[in-house]
Predict the 3D structure of the following.
Amino acid sequence: MKKTSTRLADGRELIYYDARDDRVRDAVDRRPLDPTVTTSEVRRDPLLGDAVAIASHRQGRTYHPPADECPLCPSSGDRLSEIPDSSYDVVVFENRFPSLAGDAGRCEVVCFTSDHDASFADLTEAQAGLVLEAWTDRTAELSHLPAVDQVFCFENRGAEIGVTLGHPHGQIYGYPFVTPRTALMLSSLASHKRATGGGNLFDEVVERELADGSRVVLSSEHWVAFVPYAAHWPYEVHLYPRRRVPDLLGLDEDARTAFPQVYLELLRRFDRIFGGPEGAEGAAGGAPTPYIAAWHQAPFGPLDAFEGVNRDDFALHLELFTIRRTSGKLKFLAGSESGMNVFINDVPPETAAQRLREVASS
């Protein structure tokens, strides 16, 4: 992999990640951009103890542009985009309309491919491996920023999720605090460690799923994927490396090499869930399954609030889920979910796992 860092016309950082070491990236951003102005502010809720990012400048962000005006496609002739060069493998740049910025953290965009009509599931294993390298590199770089305590790499896919740009891309958030969901995991981890005299809750969850087997979707030498016992979403898969590591930086070479095949298979199965026994909807060009793919990594900030827990106790894993509960119907977060954070799942996890095994590629 070759990494080339440059600057856009308004001063934002842009990084090319190339498979070829001899690739030269010297294209200049020719757009007449004014310096980026952000209003990001983090406010804490005194009752819940969580944080809310206030970012009014995002109201003016690009919204469903036509394909020939996509800001994530490479620049071509007089059509200038966020990527100055005429092609790219993987590219990362600071978000022009960030939810978090400055002392309130950092937001970046990750473009998985220059092909506007592709999706992550269409990538080759080599391309997916390059994305993994970019995620890992950005995690390392953002972890050194004073304003960042936790790094979150994720992909929103599909209009139903709220995606406003159709080009295959994801995002990376550098939060200036430990997120509420991670805090809950750390609290459970700490409680379990005290109660068992040092046992690791993540390890026991994975071992329990493997022993039961009914919710395991796929298993390989280096990775295991399963629908969790108490899945919140209709179709939800958690993907863990067999060897527990706290973050993407901790993955060994074997796990990195094996990841693309496993992850691409999971994504392709998701596109076949709702299309009948053979996944006809996804295979025949029906509506792709909307999903969120979220990497959970140990925070880089202090863990003093979670007595007895250190970074190495945390288990890196990816959570992949869809808000579609059946063909043509979405799972809405209504009163119980939005008002009380109590999820009600219409699809039994064992049924979801069985369906995801049925639509395997082979």
